[in-house]
Amino acid sequence: MNTLVIVLIAAVCLLGAYTFYGRWLANKWGIDPKAKTPAVVHEDGRDYVPTNGWTVFAHQFSSIAGAGPVTGAIQAAAFGWLPVLLWVLIGGIFFGAVTDFGALYASVKNDGKSMGMLIEKYIGKTGRKLFLIFSWIFCCIVVAAFADMVAGTFNAYTVTDAGVTELAAAAAGSSEQEVLQQRIAMLRTQLEGAAVEDLVPPSPDMAAGKDKLISMLEALAERVEARAQS
């Protein structure tokens, strides 16, 4: 499928969800668009500052879409573009968007308090502590994942003694090794089953050359297998 078609489908789905599903949620929750936000009611020039709606939207959008360009391409390479597209559209609309929308709405209805303060208010101090511990662990996992991806990018290629840049053994996928082994085995089988008279052009040294080529393929197969296990 053409990339432009995928982008247009995603844009239509997201715009439609914002227009219809978002409006339905706002009506369901009883949101009053004319109500004053805590930034207006408690304006103090420090913690409560009225801000342009587009600025608030940009902050929220950057928080949500920050990891998309990094992890999206990797997920698409691992699972294919269709599962990732469905996850972005279905998961983003019915899971991510609703979660963020609900958190922001709960904060606005409670004088702009953070999620930790809301949990303490409605659940208790133990719930707040557990939430903060979870948030801290989650942030550590995210940082570790990004660090691993960056380190993997730098370790993907290595320079040999001859000055040739090639894919490092740690970055080479096992599937590539298996395919290479299968091709070597197929060539060796074909050579072993071929008669010297069938090789063109005929030569007195053809039999010796054939045996030497088979030996080279066997040695190459052993090196590939050793590299795959390292």
Brief write-up:
This protein has helices spanning 3-29, 38-41, 53-65, 68-79, 81-109, 115-122, 125-154, 174-193, 206-229, and strands spanning 157-159, 165-167. The longest helix is centred in the middle third of the chain and has 30 residues, at 125-154.
Provide keyphrases for this structure.
single chain, about 230 residues, mainly alpha, two-stranded antiparallel ribbon, 9 helices, about 75% helix
Kindly describe this structure.
The chain has 230 residues and is mainly alpha-helical. Helices cover 73% and strands 3% of the residues. The protein is elongated, with a radius of gyration of 30 Å. Mean pLDDT is 76; it is low at 196-200.
Radius of gyration: 30 Å
Distance between the termini: 38 Å
- Topology order in helix (H) and strand (E) letters: HHHHHHHEEHH
Q: Structural class of the secondary structure composition? A: mainly alpha
Overall outline: elongated
The helix content is over 70%
Number of DSSP E strands: 2
- List segments where confidence is low: pLDDT < 50 over at least 5 consecutive residues: 196-200
Oligomer classification: single chain
Mean pLDDT: 76
Work out the strand percent: under 5%
> Taking strands numbered 1, 2, ... along the chain, how are they ordered across the largest sheet?
1-2
Number of helices: 9
Largest sheet: 2 strands, antiparallel
Write the layout of secondary structure elements.
Elements: H1 3-29, H2 38-41, H3 53-65, H4 68-79, H5 81-109, H6 115-122, H7 125-154, E1 157-159, E2 165-167, H8 174-193, H9 206-229
